[in-house]
Structure formats: structure tokens, C-alpha cells
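[step 3/7] fold_predict: job queued, chain A
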Amino acid sequence: MLSSMEAKLSHYLKSSAISARNLREQKAKIEALVADISHQTKTPMANILLYAQLLDEQETSDDARLLITSLIGQSEKLKTLIDALVKTSRLETGIYQFQTKRAKVEPMLAETIRQYLPKAQQKHISLKQEPTEAFAVFDAKWTAEAVGNLIDNAIKYTPAGGEVSLHVSEYDMFCRIVITDNGRGIPEEEQTKIFQRFYRSPSVAEEKGVGLGLYLAREIISGQGGYIKLESQPEKGSTFSIFLPRE
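[step 4/7] structure written:
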């Protein structure tokens, strides 16, 4: 019986080792494929946008101008989609491992706000953040991506003259980053759907977007041991709370 047990255990360990090796090989292939897609599409997309912008600077008819504007808009949308899909693929397949460390959240938030300030100013939206000395355990690059996606959404769905604000609270186990707007809000029946991949509410179909921003934000935060909470009422705005572990 002991000999039979040893044989079965040995067979199990060999099978597990083979499965692990196959899994690593498949992961390496996916990583190479994602890298190839990212590399091969980056230059053509940049060229398409460049040529479209050069055309936009030329003297053209009104009809041609409309076509050029549409071409630029669709090219930018495609570029955004490809970038989001590559990031999503890297997270879902485990290609990217978060490099978390305990640090102040203030520098990450300040830099993210700086990037989105021109967009807010263009819509005459107030974008501000309360100073904080809070610490959390997070990957600065990817967390900035998640925070940026939420800020971008807030600006997009807040009318001109509105306000988007950030503040930070500390609890025993979590650091909470709160992003509040006074925009159109989200109906209760849609609040469980907006974090799904490619979900787009019929009420915002006219706005630019590919339906991956909130999904990607949730994947980034949950991958670091945190979570995102939403509170919203139609016509009264939304509050997204990011909870990051403190230790």
C-alpha cells in the first residue's frame, strides 16, 4: 500500500510539474502576442492620426472637413480601445505583477490631477484635491491609471460649470480615495453593470468611450487587495471610493 501510494504521489507531482510548465509556456506566448499587438499597432495608429491632422490643416470643403473630423475621432477611439485591451489582457493573464509598496498617496494623486486638469478646464469644471498625508500600499503607476479613469469619467459626465473633487480618509485597514462629482449620476439599476467589460449605458451613448475604463479600474484596485465602492443618484452626481490597504 505504501509503495502504491508513493507511485501515485510521484505520478501526481510529475503531472503537476508538467501542467505548471505548460502554463508558463502558454503565459509566455500570450505575453509575446500582447507585446506584438501593442508594437505592431502603435506606429500605424500614430501615422493615421498624423495624416488626419495634417489634412485638417489644409484648405478643404465643408463636406471634406466633416469627414476629416470623423476620421480623427474614430482613430482616437480605436487607439484608446487598443491601449485599453492591451492593459486589460496584461492584467487578466497575470502577465503584469503589481509592484506595491507603502507610500504617500499625495504625489500620485497630484500628478494624476495635473494630467486631467486641461480637460476639466476646457469644460469649465473645477477639479480640486484636498491635501493629505495618508499612506497606503499600492503600485503608483497602475493606481494612477485607475484613479485617472475615474476622474476622466467624472469630467465626462459632469456638465460645464460643475465640480469634481478628491479627498482621502484613513481607516484602520484601508486608505480611502474619494472622487465626487455633481454630474448626471447613475441609475440604481445600472450601478451593478457599469464595471462590466464593454458596458455602455444607453443614456450616454453620445459620449466618447469604449466601456473599459471602469472595468480596468476595478481590476487594478482588486488586484492590489483593495476594492471600489459606488454611491450615486440621478441628476445629483456620483461618488466613487477606492479602498487601498494600508499595510
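[step 5/7] annotate
The chain has a mean pLDDT of 85.
The first helix runs from residue 2 to 56.
exit 0
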